[in-house]
Amino acid sequence: MVVNSASERVLAGLDPEQRSAVTAPAGPVCVLAGAGTGKTRAVTSRIAYRALTGEISARHVLAVTFTARAAAELRQRLAVAGVAGVQARTFHAAALRQVRYFAPRLLDGRAMPELLDSKVRLVTLAAARAGLRADRTAARDLAGEIEWAKSSLVEPGEYVVAAAKALRETSHEPAKVAEVFAAYERLKRTGGVIDFEDVLRAAVWGIEEHPDVAEQVRNQYRHLVVDEYQDVNPLQQRLLDAWLGGRDDLTVVGDASQTIYSFTGATSAYLVDFPRRYRAATVVRLVRDYRSTPQVVGLANAVISQARGTEARLRLELVGQRPAGPEPERRIFTDEPAEAAAVAARCRALIDAGTPAREVAVLFRTNAQSEAYEKALAEAGVPYLVQGAERFFERVEVRQAIVALRAATRSLPGDTPLPAAVVEALAGVGWAPDTPPPGGAARERWEALAALVQLAEEYAATPEIVPLGVAATVERPVTLTDFTEELARRAAQQHVPTVDGVTLASLHSAKGLEWDAVFLVGLAEGTLPTTYARTTEQVEEERRLLYVGITRARQWLWLSYASARSPGGRPRRPCRFLPQLAPTSATERASGGRPVRTPQRRAATRIVSCRICGTTLLAGPDRKLGRCATCLSDIDDELHERLREWRSRVAGAQKVPAYVVFTDATLVALAERRPGRAEELVAIAGIGPRKLGLYGEAVLALVAGAAVDEICPQKTSESDR
Prior knowledge:
Layout: H1 2-11, H2 16-23, E1 29-33, H3 39-52, E2 61-65, H4 68-80, E3 87-90, H5 91-106, E4 114-115, H6 120-129, H7 136-151, H8 159-165, H9 174-191, E5 193-194, H10 196-209, H11 211-220, E6 223-226, H12 234-244, E7 250-254, H13 269-277, E8 282-286, E9 288-289, H14 294-304, E10 319-320, E11 329-333, H15 336-352, E12 360-364, H16 370-379, E13 384-386, H17 396-411, H18 418-427, H19 440-460, E14 464-468, E15 472-476, H20 480-494, E16 502-506, E17 515-520, H21 536-550, E18 553-562, H22 586-590, E19 608-609, E20 616-617, H23 620-625, H24 637-654, H25 658-661, H26 664-673, H27 678-682, H28 689-703, H29 708-711
Parallel strand pairs: 1-7, 1-8, 2-3, 2-6, 4-5, 6-7, 9-10, 11-18, 12-16, 12-17, 13-16, 17-18
Antiparallel strand pairs: 14-15, 19-20
Helix pairs in contact: 1-3, 2-3, 3-4, 5-10, 6-7, 6-9, 7-19, 8-9, 10-11, 10-12, 14-21, 15-16, 17-18, 17-20, 18-19, 24-26
């Protein structure tokens, strides 16, 4: 009787869908759980209910999660329900525990190899063996590729083909990455060490190749539960299959619309295919959202309803269960500093009105965006903490850049324009403005240094006012020395210790978290979706990333973007995934962005179609090229080379970075489209009347076949030889 009453208490308060998941019969169960629908409660209640009714023994359950925090929460909830003995662990923790237990048997009494905390040091050595010099950033990117390959069950000899099929963007040639991968594996064996992927592989090997180990493991773990099943990679699925050994008492929980880690090897394919793999599977959809207001839920549904592709087949339409709240606020600002200042002001107002700072979050697409918000919050007196990343001025590359800038104050002429001086100084630490490098860590480093260049451009736009006598003043251009002093001031201002503050986080690191008030910022084309999202699948993952961000908010949601990066900068378009954002007036920006009362007309945007397939082009680089990034290029390589040489000479003569003349994308567009008249030139995005007047005649001559030496003489300075 006691047991029955306890099991009934587990069911109390569950909604009909949760109850269906909890009471589903033994066997394969797939719980499709939308954001905020109580999936953790459903999972723990299913385990507790089955244990309390005597259907299973708790000690025979293995519940696998993706974070130690989630595992701890699951164990805590089970303890409250009166169920003890369930093993709730991450994939790696569960595998490591088994490998250590069976090591004496599997290794003939030898000690288990030491586990590497980080791959970076060994990858650096492996790169050297492969003839590459890899700094810490490059080593991190190479380590990431090795992790992807091993998680995807790809061996060194298979890497080149597998990377091409997966459209991997690598920091080095795929063949070189494969060499580093092979050298890394050899160094591990020689050094007697293993990495985390090896632990999973060892667990698989122990079960698949040793029947006695398989029997013992499967006798212990008879009922398996997997949380966040959309994030499983092929190696983890292989281990899960080894644990199961053909049995089917498996409960998986996931949400295909929150698949945002495919770059690590995670795939929602196993979740999508679950009902086909297990024909007798019970599938339950949890759609009642208990986290967010109906207004936030409505926006999330509107964004994800446009999704396409495999994951969209399991799309859930959430139903808000909370009382009505405020409509999400949607804002446009003239530039990013104005956007950051408005966000900081609103954070200040929310905190002053009683919202705890820890219940407020500012979420952005890339970590490099954090600096503007760190500065704005510090100036507004709002405490903050950076989730999952270092503060901007604490990053290694930023500290190195500031040292280089200080050194440049002694070596560069004092009349060098500030942005040009910063670009030249950063060249000394390996930064170039033209093209961001592939690879996650390398690209983050590039973006952080690009943020410093942007700061310099903003700072240079405000000359210093110098008094001349009693009533007269004169403007003095700011210098590189002034800028380094400004950076020092900002760094000092942002290094105030904080314990409880507003959370600054990337959208990826915000997964699994929630706050009362959420600011989604920088929602502009080129940032979200990122310019690096070129395929349909990549663009759809960017959409899901925005969906994850929206569903982090419980009560209050702000969405904004700046129409230009810096004051007077090039205009940008809002994120294509969102309904139209409302502009704000100058007065409203100053007051933190109050709602607009009078609708304002937006300038018409010229529709650009792919000249090859006819698709409407939305991404900036694609519009400039005049074709989809995935459509076959018909570039004239010889013309492209002459254009690059001409641009280099012009930039050198004008003492400006090459991209100021024409960006790489514009050069590609010119070499592909080969314009013959001025009207065709200005039809290429990025070539307006000014650049037509400056460079039009020369470009048309080059397209017509003129040699570079006929248009601009060969430079003879040492730097150009």
